[in-house]
């Protein structure tokens, strides 16, 4: 099995045997259920769909709150459980999670623009209080704003992945995983683990 689904618990630190203090992120990894198996003959590739957080009132089409597809070579059986103990021999993993969503933001917060001077009447000349991007358009040619221009817009709520993250501690009994460093998102955020 190449992956698992977890929930971010929070951050703490672990003191190793040599006295070194390592900041870690704790991830709760509940038992996942194989909800669907895809094969090369039927779907064109081998994959498995895992589900966690069973719904209190499941329907025919949806029985779990969180689903994720992982590609792999060997096909497990449907309705089997995937537990955290498969990480016992893994030293490094890849972690994917969504960053905190901050909604529609301006260029100062979104792209770290400096902003305009706040004295001598500069801020009073525009309604943005010195936090607007300024001139953005070109001349008659091309007569439009080019793609990729740094402008206000949606900030956050996008998937980010950290590769080769060391596994610091594995608690199989309590189904907890401690990895080195920070990962995106708030507490309770869904985390996708690949190895």
Write the layout of secondary structure elements.
Layout: E1 3-15, E2 21-28, E3 32-38, H1 40-43, E4 47-54, E5 64-71, E6 81-82, E7 92-98, E8 104-105, H2 107-111, E9 153-154, E10 159-171, E11 176-180, E12 190-194
Antiparallel strand pairs: 1-2, 1-12, 2-11, 3-4, 3-6, 4-5, 7-10, 7-12, 8-9, 10-11
Q: Helix fraction?
A: under 10%
Largest sheet: 6 strands, antiparallel, barrel
Structure classification: mainly beta
Q: Using DSSP, what is the number of strands?
A: 12
Amount of beta strand: 35-45%
The rough form would be described as extended
What fold name goes in the CATH topology slot of the domain at 3-55 and 63-101 and 155-194?
Elongation Factor Tu (Ef-tu), domain 3
Count up the helices: 2
Q: Which sequence of strands runs across the widest sheet?
A: 1-2-11-10-7-12
CATH homology superfamily of the domain at 3-55 and 63-101 and 155-194: Translation factors
| Helix-strand pattern | EEEHEEEEEHEEEE
* CATH architecture term of the domain at 3-55 and 63-101 and 155-194: Beta Barrel
> Which runs of at least 5 residues are low in confidence (pLDDT < 50)?
none
What is the average of the pLDDT values? 89
> Distance between termini?
9 Å
* Top CATH class of the domain at 3-55 and 63-101 and 155-194: Mainly Beta
Alpha-carbon Rg, integer: 23 Å
